[in-house]
């Protein structure tokens, strides 16, 4: 298994290491539920160094990205340096190859893509790049730590006091750079917080500093329940290459405003957008017994109508929740849990945001 | 926390005789560690007849669902209501207050087919 720069830190923090797509990462450090609660009420940290950081430069960098991904990086310039954008990267059929964040920084564009899709992403991106004057520089010299929770930014501000003002003034989806470190107000938990990219050589010391200051190490388990409560997609589960943004709640990251901009998947996407039979992504709340899980069938009016793409027990709501893809608009459905049909309520996503339940 | 009066299945259930033909069944400390925080437990009904090796319930953690297999045959005489209401009791005390069901054994010689403590500990490495 591959190890991140925080591997020794996980061992020292009693992380229970699992094989996560070839990476040795902690699933928890004792209790997944306590880690989840730390992020909702205080501050927790996640090693996300398995994710792929790439810097994109060259005279065609902007045009390359405008063609490569579904959201429009031209918007970044309007906000100025330090702005970030969430996007999909689509294939010709408008299926989602990956989801990513692109940053416009003083040193150029930076993208962060998923670990599990690494091989195909790199092949795809390099192939598209052949037509452009760009360089793609993978930054394996950087580690990445997500520090999330209502007290996350204040806490990092105290520990990096010379940056305190700048950190406290960061708006959502903006970032600052300092001496090779990047601090972005982004995350995957539905809470306020930062994603920090830092030199691998600083990783273990920084981890220890955060542990010493009461920041709770959190594993992949808590990361999954937090993102699911926040209604955020997990690649390979809630979407993949056979799923279009229309079907997985990613419609908002496809930007059609500039009619002159061509991007991969645009024509197919436009065609599908006018098709009213698209399935849609919804949230489910279990009213019956058990726990909703990925792959369980959603039954509406006695007919199978869709499937759960992610399901779990929600530690914040103390009941089971799921993300599902279904074909009709309705408020009630049943889910087949091991042969037993259990009632669910259909709700919009997310379930939880900034520590508050959005479920009535 | 493991004791010599327990017998085990490789699938991490334990059984312990309470009297001549009555036994309590639960899942092991090792099992609860593998599963992580438990959030839902589905147990058979009192009076239900069960056969050793049958799947008789479901244990769900935040992470995953896992079948509960019976190490013995007999009739369910009691279920632990406390773990239904508070599944994480199985995490905190899997071998005592986190027991799951009580069974009146129909064939106590089945216990001889189960793993003893040493064998179970070997099986989990």
Give a short summary of the structure.
With 360 residues, chain A is of the alpha+beta class. Helix content of chain A is 23%, strand content 34%.
List the defining traits of the structure above.
heterodimer; A: 360 residues; alpha+beta; six-stranded mixed β-sheet; six-stranded antiparallel beta barrel; 10 helices; B: 125 residues; six-stranded antiparallel β-sheet; three-stranded antiparallel β-sheet; globular
How is this structure best described in words?
The complex is a heterodimer of chains A (360) and B (125). Chain A has 360 residues and is an alpha+beta fold. Chain A is built from ten helices and 22 strands. In chain A, strands 11-12-13-10-4-14 form a six-stranded mixed sheet. A six-stranded antiparallel beta barrel of chain A has the order 15-18-17-16-19-20. In chain A, α2 packs across α9. The longest helix of chain A has 12 residues. Chain A is globular. Chain A starts with a strand and ends with a strand. The model of chain A has no long low-confidence stretch (mean pLDDT 96). Chain B has 125 residues and is α+β, with helices and mostly antiparallel strands. In chain B, 18% of the residues lie in helices and 37% in strands. In chain B, a hairpin with a 2-residue loop joins β2 and β3. Chain B is globular. Chains A and B meet through loops of A and β4 of B.
